[in-house]
Specification:
The longest helix has 23 residues. The chain is of the alpha/beta class. The relative contact order is 0.12. 32% of the residues lie in helices and 19% in strands. It has a single domain, classed as Metallo-beta-lactamase, Chain A (4-Layer Sandwich), CATH 3.60.15.10. Bound molecules: zinc ion (2 copies). One zinc ion binds next to helix 4. The site of one zinc ion has 5 residues, from loops.
């Protein structure tokens, strides 16, 4: 690998926690700024100035970290294939990072799921030459106004026409591009109902989208089909898919491997079981939060999208 990404690159560069102001959203496009402040508004602001780190992985595959969801880039004679499109306000820095890899034109984009930090660049990448491929539920959620609850509290308007995936699939899909076999597989509902994994066969690199967050508590989008138990099932599926040699690109956090997938699964299961036991005893959410079921992990895992209390609330909702 050409560069080493520190585990907290995306933590520092993606999102500050709380305290975000009206000014936060002013850098986002007009149709998104009607709702100001909050976690999503903060993400727009942060991504506008976030440094994008370019990390070479294996063969002709590179990852861009820091602009929202991690972007994988496959280069070659067929042009660039991107996995995910980051947050819209990161457009200038993502453009520069892509150009720094090489001059191959942008030809194809795959979205791992519908969330704004993975599809925000869809429209400009489409205008730059990319055709967009995703799961059918990604197209569904991008095609109409969609509300996200939890600590997002945000209603996303329907995406512009150019941002909507033109090709979708239901269970799995394979493409051959740049002498590479790319296998896409839909998870049963996990983080959302639109999640897919992307596997680069020859390079043995797996992009998990947001079914895996490397040392950060995940968001769980119940409104579009996500659940804690679905997240755990997806974590198990990811572990089953890889070997010790596989490079694993998470939706958020540093590039990792099988041991990181196992740790993520173990943390989710541990907290899920503790929260479920307390809920079964009849404890209301504030008491469960106060019991700190993730105390062993909170200092490291509770710094990005989800602080410890928000994550416990998401788990409590689903057990
Ligand atoms: Zn994400
Ligand atoms: Zn997501």
């Amino acid at each position: 690998m050409a560069t080493e990404a520190s585990p907290d690159i995306s933590r520092r560069q993606f999102l500050a926690t709380g305290g975000l102001t009206v000014a936060a959203a002013c850098l986002a496009p007009g149709h998104l700024v009607a709702q100001t402040g909050g976690l999503v508004g903060g993400a727009f602001k942060e991504a506008a100035t976030a440094k994008v780190t370019v990390q070479n992985l294996r063969r002709n595959i590179t990852v861009l970290l820091g602009a929202g969801g991690n972007i994988a880039v496959l280069t070659g004679p067929d042009g660039k294939l991107l996995i995910d499109a980051a947050i819209i306000t990161a457009h200038p820095n993502v453009s520069k990072a892509l150009a720094s890899i090489n001059a191959d034109p942008i030809k194809q984009l795959i979205n791992t799921h519908w969330h704004f930090d993975h599809t925000g660049g869809n429209e400009w990448l489409h205008e730059a030459g990319a055709s967009i491929l995703a799961h059918e539920n990604t197209r569904k959620h991008l095609s109409r106004p969609t509300r996200v609850e939890g600590n997002w509290q945000y209603t996303f308007p329907a995406a512009p026409a150019g941002a909507i995936p033109s090709t979708v699939f239901k269970d799995d899909h394979t493409l051959h591009i740049n002498n590479t076999t790319v296998t896409l597989k839909h998870y049963s509902p996990a983080h959302t109902d639109s999640d897919i994994s992307v596997y680069f066969t020859e390079a043995d690199i797996l992009h998990t989208g947001d079914t895996f967050w490397n040392r950060d508590y995940p968001f769980i989008d119940y409104g579009t089909g996500g659940s804690i138990d679905g997240h755990i099932r997806a974590a198990e599926a990811n572990i089953a898919k890889v070997t010790e040699k596989t490079i694993v690109i998470p939706g958020h956090g540093a590039v990792g491997g099988k041991a990181d997938l196992v740790l993520f699964r173990d943390v989710l299961v541990d907290i899920r079981n503790k929260v479920a036991a307390l809920k079964k005893q009849g404890k209301p959410l504030p008491e469960v939060i106060a019991a700190k079921p993730g105390a062993r992990y909170d200092a490291e895992w509770g710094n990005l999208f989800q602080n410890p209390a928000d994550f416990v609330a998401l788990v409590y909702q689903g057990v």
